[in-house]
Design goal:
The protein has about 300 residues and is an alpha/beta fold. About 35% of the residues lie in helices and about 10% in strands.
């Protein structure tokens, strides 16, 4: 097994990604996104440095790879974006330079994507698939993803993508010296592409909560607007909700919101979208699925327009 960095712990890696997300709100980091970024850091450390970045286990959960000790640490924040509250935080004093370079490379490749996209990406890759051993995608699993499996897969992926890029450049007749004008990254950006095209969202009502359904109470043009929202969503690619004005207001399991979580998995990120007036749509995403949990005529917490 590859040798571990002796002074780098998973918490330090997580802190750095939270710090980067705090600097650029368009790439803000939630707990679920953090799990994927730290997972990819481990993967690419194995490939590029032949070293384990941290010793904590990574498990193949429903929504992709998760580091349990890290998930529990940030679980209390619910679905909020995580922030670096230490204003004196200096990453260069916390993490060795070579590891910072690796983390910056992971951020360059994966940081621009949201948690939904990264979840779907890990669902397409062998370490998560093989570790779960063909069990239903919605079944809970705590199986540990072997680091050797990660190293084999991502090494193969790197070779495959580099070969594809060489062929594309030849086909496009790009001169060999063209790439010299810009220093290439260690990881090709297209390792993070899902097939040839990112899939569209598919709307599902399998987790819809009938007990709080208020769709019959929607007034004025709210029913029509609700249908328009659903139509728009089916034309969106995974990860494009916010940029297309689909609200992603994080919902916490407290107050009037508690009932929304009945029957949902523990690590679900629940969100709210304002349909019109006081009408609300509550949902979560799982890979390419847009899962509707409730449609209400009023805001559940205050019964008023937010």
């Amino acid at each position: 097994m590859p040798r571990s960095f002796t002074k780098t712990i998973v918490a330090a890696v997580a802190d750095y990604f939270i710090y980067l997300g705090s600097k650029d709100k368009t790439k803000a980091v939630s707990n679920k996104k953090l799990q994927k970024l730290v997972y990819y850091s481990q993967a690419w450390s194995l490939v590029l440095n032949n070293k384990i970045l941290f010793d904590d286990k990574i498990e193949a959960w429903i929504h992709g790879p998760v580091i349990p000790i890290l998930y529990k640490k940030y679980k209390k924040f619910g679905f909020q974006h995580l922030s670096m509250n230490d204003h004196n935080y200096k990453p260069e004093k916390k993490i060795p330079k070579d590891i910072l370079n690796l983390l910056n490379e992971v951020w360059r490749i994966y940081g621009k994507y949201d948690a939904d996209y990264l979840e779907l990406l890990t669902h397409e890759e062998d370490p998560w698939i093989i570790t779960r051993n063909n069990i239903d995608p919605k079944v809970i699993s705590s199986k540990t993803i072997p680091v050797d499996l990660m190293k084999i897969f991502y090494t193969s992926l790197l070779i495959k993508v580099k070969q594809q890029n060489v062929k594309k450049n030849r086909k496009a007749k790009i001169p060999n010296n063209a790439s010299k004008s810009k220093k290439p990254g260690l990881i090709p950006s297209n390792v993070a592409l899902i097939g040839d095209k990112n899939p569209n969202y598919v709307i599902t009502f399998k987790k819809y909560n009938d007990k709080i359904c208020q769709i019959n109470d929607l007034i004025k043009n709210s029913p029509k607007e609700c249908l328009h929202v659903f139509k728009r969503i089916t034309h969106l690619l995974v990860g494009q909700l916010q940029e297309n004005n689909i609200g992603k207001i994080p919902i916490s399991k407290k107050g009037g919101y508690k009932i929304l979580f009945n029957g949902l998995d523990e690590d679900v990120d629940l969100y709210e979208h304002k349909i019109q007036g006081t009408a609300r749509l509550f949902y979560f995403t799982a890979a390419h699925e847009f899962c509707v949990v409730a449609i209400t005529a009023n805001h559940l917490e205050t019964n008023k327009n937010r």
